[in-house]
């Protein structure tokens, strides 16, 4: 694994302010201050990669494209999002503490997750995205009633969550 220099080593608050502003920047800073960044690292190409925890977990990658900060995130936001901003704030903090970022390899599951975002959506994806929350819930109930393995899978997933939460 080749180690690229960290292009984020000289990142400043001014760079972040030039990239995003307003509530996105403020919320990103809050996520970072609350410890929401996990496994921050560099890719072999020098991109910043992290898991960001909040109401759910997102994979995020930040990189320079023509010397401009750019990001890709597993959340639904287009462009720079609070998760990406939080990861850059964390990189800024670690730089101030003289903490070097580890380099991950190409098998990192976040890279797979983020590359899958570029795949064209399937017909099922397109259909499900047209449904409201209530329609999705009704669809799941209907499938669970008609297909026993769906109900079993839901029960297993529910038990996993309850076990993780100690309930």
Write up what this structure looks like:
With 167 residues, the chain is α+β, with helices and mostly antiparallel strands. α2 packs across α3 and α6 (133-146) packs across α7 (148-164). The chain contains 7 helices and 4 strands, in the order ααββββααααα. The termini are far apart. The protein has a 4-stranded antiparallel sheet with strand order 1-2-3-4, sandwiched between helices. The chain is elongated. The relative contact order is 0.14. The longest helix has 17 residues, at 148-164.
Strand order of the largest sheet: 1-2-3-4
Total E-strand runs: 4
- Give the count of structural domains: 2
Please indicate the percent range of residues in DSSP E strands (runs of 2 or more).
Answer: 15-25%
What is the number of helical segments per DSSP (H or I, 4+ residues)?
Answer: 7
Structural features:
alpha+beta, 7 helices, single chain, 2 domains, 4-stranded antiparallel sheet, 167 residues, 16% strand
Task: Give a brief outline of the structure.
The chain is an alpha+beta fold and 167 residues long. The protein has helices at residues 13-19, 22-33, 82-96, 109-116, 123-128, 133-146, 148-164; strands at 37-42, 48-53, 57-65, 68-73.
Q: In terms of topology, how is this protein built?
A:
Elements: H1 13-19, H2 22-33, E1 37-42, E2 48-53, E3 57-65, E4 68-73, H3 82-96, H4 109-116, H5 123-128, H6 133-146, H7 148-164
Antiparallel strand pairs: 1-2, 2-3, 3-4
């Amino acid at each position: 694994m080749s180690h690229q220099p960290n292009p984020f080593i000289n990142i400043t608050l001014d760079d972040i302010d030039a990239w995003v502003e307003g509530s996105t920047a403020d919320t990103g800073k809050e996520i970072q201050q609350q410890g929401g960044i996990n496994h921050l690292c560099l890719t072999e190409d020098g991109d910043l990669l992290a898991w960001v925890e909040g109401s759910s977990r997102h994979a995020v990658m930040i990189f320079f494209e023509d010397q401009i900060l750019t990001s890709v995130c597993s959340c639904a936001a287009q462009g720079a999002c609070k998760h990406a901003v939080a990861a850059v704030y964390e990189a800024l903090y670690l730089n101030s503490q003289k903490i070097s970022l580890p380099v991950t390899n190409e098998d990192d599951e976040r890279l797979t997750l983020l590359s899958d975002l570029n795949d064209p959506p399937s017909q099922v994806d397109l259909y499900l995205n047209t449904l409201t929350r209530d329609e999705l819930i009704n669809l799941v109930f209907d499938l669970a009633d008609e297909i026993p393995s769906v109900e079993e899978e839901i029960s297993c997933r529910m038990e996993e969550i309850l076990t993780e939460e100690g309930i």
